[in-house]
Design goal:
Structural class: mainly alpha
CATH architecture of the largest domain: Orthogonal Bundle
Number of domains: 2
CATH topology of the largest domain: hpI Integrase, Chain A
Order of helices and strands: HHHHHHEEEHHHHHHH
CATH superfamily of the largest domain: Intergrase catalytic core
Strand content: under 5%
Number of strands: 3
Radius of gyration: 24 Å
Distance between the termini: 85 Å
């Protein structure tokens, strides 16, 4: 997997899936398993373990790698169907809710981090890997290196965030990464950022089920509501397909929130009829 330039996150996930797979069938060796055995295992994950379709698909990918790439046994997984993915819409924060989250964060480093993630639509892993030289203040751009799919891209740099970053830089002077953990030269951990956001959302009294990734969803949705072309949003987010970006049309107030309910139209018309004309 390293030779194929798989990301460390993918390698870790595949190895975890395969360890679980091997333990399930122990002492039988994976080479001795049939197509029916593998199907039964995937069904076990869905019906007994309660795995989501996305998780089962990741297991399927790991098993496929094992049989096709290592064992050269493509027939073992060739006829196994993949679970259909759930079509869940992302949770989106309003502009007021985003503001409350930022204002509830007193720590300068934490505030700069959350502001940057929202303002540029970053994945949390991309934020942890940013280096000071990736901030192009002259062009108001951020250089994202090695994003999802090993792709580089540029995204926007907010002037408000730039001011906060300069204040943060003067106070902390990070050496290698823009946001470092307690150990100098090491990036701030994803888990720590998730905790920072969770606490900020609680202080801001956000009633929705949100994660730090919700900031990225909100960034895309808010841009769409401002009238930004979907193609530009796709580029800013680093999506390989426009179909991935199109999900935000289903949660945008620009496309849904401006539609008047027929009940409102009926009630307004009824109220208008009851108003007596002024007799003069």
């Amino acid at each position: 997997m390293r030779l194929r330039n798989y990301s460390p996150k993918t390698i870790k996930a595949y190895l975890s899936c395969l360890r679980r797979f091997v333990r399930y069938f122990r002492p039988r060796h994976p080479r001795d398993l049939s197509n029916s055995d593998i199907k039964a295992y995937l069904l076990h994950l869905i019906e007994t373990e309660g795995f989501a379709a996305s998780s089962v698909n990741q297991v399927f990918n790991a098993i496929r790698f094992l049989y096709v790439e290592l064992y050269k046994m493509p027939y073992a997984v060739g006829a196994i169907p993949r679970p259909k993915k759930e079509k869940k819409l992302p949770v989106v924060l309003s502009g007021e809710e985003v503001k409350r989250i930022m204002e509830s964060t007193a720590n300068l480093k934490h505030k700069a981090l959350l502001m940057l993630i929202y303002s540029a639509g970053l994945r949390v892993g991309e934020a942890t890997r940013l280096r000071p030289e990736d901030i192009d203040s002259d062009r108001n751009l951020i250089h994202i290196r090695g994003g999802k799919g090993k792709k580089d891209r540029y995204t926007i740099l907010s002037t408000t965030v730039l001011s906060t970053l300069r204040e943060y830089w003067k106070a902390h002077r990070p050496e290698r990464y823009l946001f470092e953990g307690q150990e100098t030269g090491k990036p701030y951990s994803i888990r720590s950022i998730e905790k920072v956001f969770s606490r900020a959302a609680q202080r801001a009294q956000i009633g929705k089920e949100v994660t730090v990734h919700t900031l990225r969803h909100s960034f895309a949705t808010h841009l769409l509501e401002q009238g930004v072309d979907l193609r530009y949003i796709q580029e800013l987010l680093g999506h390989g397909s426009s179909k991935t970006t199109e999900i935000y049309t289903h949660v945008s107030r620009r496309t849904l929130g401006q539609i008047q309910s027929p009940l409102d139209k009926i009630m307004i018309s009824d109220a208008a009829r009851r108003v007596k004309p002024y007799a003069g």
